Amino acid sequence: MWVIFLLAAMGFAIATLLVVYIGNKVVNAMKRDDEKLNKDISKEKANEKEKEKHE
Fold this sequence. Notes:
Layout: H1 2-54
């Protein structure tokens, strides 16, 4: 009986760790995309300011 309980607990723990691992990957990817987007936005703003100076 204890063996079944321990195996079930280990299975649950492994499944939980997998969910946390995948969730962490998703969050990190979202952060990287946000950083890239912010860099692109700042580049566009800088380009617009340079165009306004030349006009």
